[in-house]
Design goal:
The protein is 37% helix and 27% strand. It contains 14 helices and 17 strands. The strands form 2 sheets. Strands 7, 8, 9, 10, 11, 12, 13, 14, 15, 16 and 17 form an 11-stranded mixed beta sheet that branches. The protein is elongated, with a radius of gyration of 24 Å. The structure holds NADP nicotinamide-adenine-dinucleotide phosphate and L-homoserine.
Length: 429
């Protein structure tokens, strides 16, 4: 059954949903021309009908009852931009069971229930498109699923959270305090409804698990991703890092080694001359290393209304192509098996450490002995000016097994000469 117009229902019209409405209405002629079929927004479910909207819509389209989208037989494609996990999971399940294609920007949901939802889609002969769930407007899901599919992906590394990159940029470039920079990121619509997901690294971990699943053809349990956020990164760490020749970035790293997968998200010192150090504000960037293609870099706006809307609308167009040509879109991710994940203590890294110690002769020697006993070799060690008998010491280690470094830290914590361990960050070269 060929259609002249494909009808779309939206669940949510906040930051992303408004971008979707703006693009689908503003570019409708262009989109229709490319598809050979028109797209029409039939219904939009929101929570609060009285709330002012960033984009003007016919009030008759709005409803506060998601069933008006999910049960409407004329709606072919449901776009979920509500966020959250359980309500979205139930809504998407019902949409698929009612024969609709689904587009979502929801990484929390895909990281927790992607396999389950993709399986339901497969059973129903439908698909879930989720390009916007990682990297905002940057194409990452399709390149991994299709363009780079013939490669064995060895490693990926990048910045995949716009809010934290905005905060770290504003702290380092403008000397802003964390709270002020976070408030700006929220005002610009980059942050999640609960911004702790961004600043504690969970948002990046959800995205990493989606990327890792596609890169390494493995089902990833979100609890297998090691996560540290940026809440403990202080302005002085950013300044000391700069003095040492590094920028501080929240990096997501996935790697397949012979023994298993390495999956981690944490604030990281990265050399100032590395391309990732130049990625500013809400921009994201990802390096992917394939055995055939070599290194590929993706860069662009990782959050925000129109950039994310761009990816959602491209997915809507893909779903429309499938509907128009009545071909089934294969779903492969649900069939992946699980590969082992290597615990952090077994992995290697360089470390940046900031601590406070009593300013007296022999403290440097004691520090060196503790690290030497744990076979941790030091690359740099700097003592900052002493204040009231307390010296601030900053050091960078050579590459070391994380477990060994942690052992040395535990010994340091027990030493009377060490007043506090203030910051521990990983370093990549
Ligand atoms: P948002 O601004 O908070 O918008 C959420 C929308 O969903 C609002 O319109 C809200 O209605 C509606 N909504 C929430 N619960 C609902 C319910 N139970 N029934 C009906 N409508 C409901 O969120 P957002 O920033 O657009 O993010 C949406 C999703 O996109 C999230 O999964 C997020 O992780 C993802 N994402 C966001 C970005 C970004 O840059 N913001 C980028 C990529 C992906 P009201 O307007 O009436 O409150
Ligand atoms: N809160 C997310 C971020 C939105 O800041 O990257 C894009 O996924």
């Amino acid at each position: 059954m060929k259609k002249d117009t494909i009808k779309i229902g939206l669940l949510g019209m906040g930051t992303v949903g408004s971008g979707v409405v703006k693009i689908l209405t503003g570019n409708s002629e262009n989109i229709g021309h490319k598809l050979g079929v028109g797209l029409e927004i039939k219904r939009i479910a929101v929570r609060d009908l009285e709330k002012p909207r960033a984009v003007e819509v016919d009030p008759a389209l709005l409803t506060d009852n998601p069933d008006h989208v999910l049960l409407d037989p004329e709606i072919d494609i449901v776009v979920e931009t509500m966020g959250g996990i359980e309500t979205a999971r139930q809504a998407i399940t019902r949409a698929l069971e009612n024969g609709k294609f689904v587009v979502t920007a929801n990484k929390d949901l895909m990281a927790h229930h992607g396999v389950e939802l993709l399986s339901i889609a497969k059973t129903q002969g439908r698909s879930i498109f989720y390009e916007a769930s990682v990297g905002g407007g940057i194409p990452l899901i399709r390149p991994l699923k299709y363009c780079l599919a013939a490669n064995r992906i060895k490693k990926f590394m990048g910045i995949i959270n716009g809010t934290t990159n905005y905060i770290l940029t504003q702290m380092s470039a403008a000397g802003k305090e964390f709270a002020e920079a976070l408030a700006e990121a929220q005002a610009q619509g980059f942050a999640e409804a609960d911004p702790s997901s961004d600043i504690e690294g969970r948002d990046a971990a959800y995205k990493l698990s989606i990327l890792a699943s596609l890169s390494f053809a493995s089902q990833i349990k979100i609890d297998d991703v090691y996560v540290e956020g940026i809440t403990d990164v202080k302005l002085r760490d950013i300044h000391y890092a700069q003095e040492l020749g590094y920028a501080v970035k929240l990096l997501a790293i996935g790697e397949e080694a012979a023994e298993g997968l390495k999956l981690h998200v944490h604030p990281t010192l990265i050399p100032l001359e590395h391309p990732l150090a130049a990625v500013q504000n809400e921009f994201n960037a990802l390096f992917i290393e394939g055995d055939a293609v070599g290194e590929v870099m993706f860069y662009g706006r990782g959050a925000g209304s129109l950039p994310t809307g761009s990816a959602v609308c491209a997915d809507v167009m893909d779903a429309a192509r499938v509907l128009k040509n009545e071909i089934e879109n294969g779903v492969l991710e649900a069939t992946f098996t699980e590969k082992p994940v290597i615990p952090m203590e077994e992995q290697h890294s360089r470390f940046y450490l900031r601590l406070k110690a009593v300013d007296e002769p022999g403290v440097f020697g004691k520090l060196a002995t503790v690290f030497g006993d744990a076979a941790v070799s030091l690359d740099r060690i700097i003592q900052k000016r002493s204040v009231e008998g307390t010296a601030e010491i900053v050091l960078v280690t050579h590459d070391v097994k994380e477990g060994r470094f942690r052992e040395a830290l535990n010994v340091l914590r027990e030493m009377p000469a060490i007043r506090s361990i203030n910051s521990v960050l990983r370093v990549v070269e």
